[in-house]
Structure formats: C-alpha cells, structure tokens
Amino acid sequence: MRRCLGWLMWSGLILWCGIGTAMAETPKTVLVLGDSLSAAHNIPVESGWVSLLDARLGKMVPMWTAVNASISGETSLSGRNRLPALLQKYHPAVLVLELGANDGLRGLPLPLLHDNLVAMIDAAQQAKVSVLLVGIELPVNYGPQYRDGLRAIYADLARTKHTSLVPFLLDGVALNPALMQEDGLHPVASAEPKVLETVWNQLQPLLH
C-alpha cells in the first residue's frame, strides 16, 4: 500500500494524510459465533477452520481478521445472551452464526431455536452487520420430522431475514469416517480445510 508521510501541500491546502492511511489499514472483522464445531474441539486450535480463515483473511487487500468467539457446548440461548457484548466489543462487519447443533442434540423445541436465531440475526442487522447463517444436520436417529424441521429453520431464516446461508457446515465431511473423530460429531484436523472451503464459498461475497 502506498504510504503518505508528512504534510502534503495541494491546491493551497495542507493535508495530513497519515491519519487516513492508518484508518485504511485497520482490518475489518469477521466475528464467528459458534459451538465446538468452530472452536477446534479436540484438535490444535491453529488447525481449526476459523484459524485457517483468519490466516486467509490476513492476506487480503484490504486486510480482514477473524475473531473466534465460539465455545464448546454453546447453545443458541447462550449465544443470544453473549452476542450484544461481542458486537459492542469487536464491531464486526460480518457475523458468521454457527449455532443450533447442541440445541438439536438436546432435543430443544424447534420454535425456541428459531426465536433465538431470529434475535441474534436482528441484533446483528440492527448494528449494520452482514450475517452468514451456518446450518447443521443431526444424526439420522433423531428422526426425519425433527431433522427436517431443523433444516427448514436455517433455510427459512436465510430467506426471510435476507442472510447468506451455508446449509450444512460439515458437507462432504460428516459422512466420511476418515474425516471424523471417534465421537462421529467433530471433524479431524485434516478435514478442517474442507470445512473452511464450505464456509468460504458463501462468506467471500460478503467481504466485497
């Protein structure tokens, strides 16, 4: 980037452009609010998809940065409670919202999950933050009615709230035993680049 040092005289005006340059170099922030799937569960933190995202964003011009506010065990309600303070602290330009898996595994009534996601999307959009909603799929033993209902929540919210959508975070990963940890729920480190690409396909347009 071309730097401007000192005073610049132009058309009879004295301009100090160091301030403008500093402001231009301040990276914008992608805030990731998720659960263990985004918190690098049982793998090195630097191998997780959010760390890989941060490394990629740091190479962009202008530069972006990723803040990972994900916590293992996070539910949509706890995320809803934490989000206002996170928005105030980090002032992100984009929110990647990856919550709902723990709600689903606990059999939370789907209307409650829906309401929590709506509240988080509304809070972000009121703060002029673009939202990328990230969906999740449950194991087949949860039954088609609940699984279909969960899937529909993400699709419906993306349409009605005009957010971007990743339908399934672990697309191309979850059904491959070689890419999953022994618990069958979390990817191994070698699968995280593929998870990143799934997110990146929908995130990249929001960065421009």
Question: Notable features of this structure?
Answer:
208 residues, alpha/beta, five-stranded parallel β-sheet, globular, disordered N terminus
Overall description:
The chain is of the alpha/beta class and 208 residues long. The protein has seven helices and seven strands, in the order E-E-H-E-H-E-H-E-H-H-E-H-E-H. The chain has helices at 18-25, 49-57, 76-90, 101-105, 110-126, 144-160, 192-203; strands spanning 7-10, 13-16, 28-34, 64-68, 94-98, 130-134, 164-166. The protein has a five-stranded parallel sheet, with helices on both faces. The protein has a two-stranded antiparallel sheet with strand order 1-2. Helix 6 (144-160) links the parallel strand 6 (130-134) and strand 7. Helix 5 (110-126) runs parallel beside helix 6. It is globular, with a radius of gyration of 20 Å. The model is unreliable at 1-23 (pLDDT under 50).
